[in-house]
What does this fold into?
Amino acid sequence: MNKELRQAVIAGNWKMNKTRPEAKALIEELKPIAEKASCGVVICVPFTNLETAVELTKGTNIKVGAENVHFEKSGAFTGEISADMLTEIGVEYVIIGHSERRQYFGETDETVNKRTKAALAAGLKPIVCVGELLWERECNITEEVVARQIKLDLFDVSAEDVKKTIIAYEPVWAIGTGKVATAEQAEEVCKLIRDVLAKLYDKETADAVTIQYGGSMNPKNAAELLAQEDVDGGLIGGASLKAADFGVLLDEASK
Ligand code: PGA
It folds into this structure.
């Protein structure tokens, strides 16, 4: 990554894992490990663990994120959580448009865009996920798919706001599968995303945006992925559930 222009951020995505006692134990284990990291450290946890995570990480360098947010301020949206509800308890980040939400819960680029704007308006930092399916890569349309997602997901988001946004490039075929993108594949698409941002905004804005890679990043492959010019950290599923593994990724991103 280019450290002069932007900060690397390693964000854990716990997904639907960890009861409250389990979350407490993992966070306590993580605190001394995360302390020495110079990269940004974020843990995105299930809604039921948010308050616990905010309490336990007070005064540390670990920031807390949610895994989704609704775009309306309040109302008849059973099961949803608003941006104000998150900021009020001290949450700072939120994952939006993760492929699991797109795949299983009907998330579309339109709703990703609405959620992103609502999050930004409330002062949350969105981690917007994009990435192609295996079929799309095989059909050679990765560039089109990802460029389209970026344009739609960030529609009407100002340059000032996009600088507060993290983009996570997560090839869907690499998530939770153990199949990791090569460092070249990750760099190619992260660079493409930066080029799209430069066209939509300007170069200075594009250079300021943190673009993560996500998909089976682990202690073994992190160094090579994170050494790429346009890969500014990672969104980490499986390896964020073990403090020691997550610690290795923090060390690599801090180099
Ligand atoms: P993984 O998940 O690291 O387990 O592949 C990444 C993600 O879904 O964000």
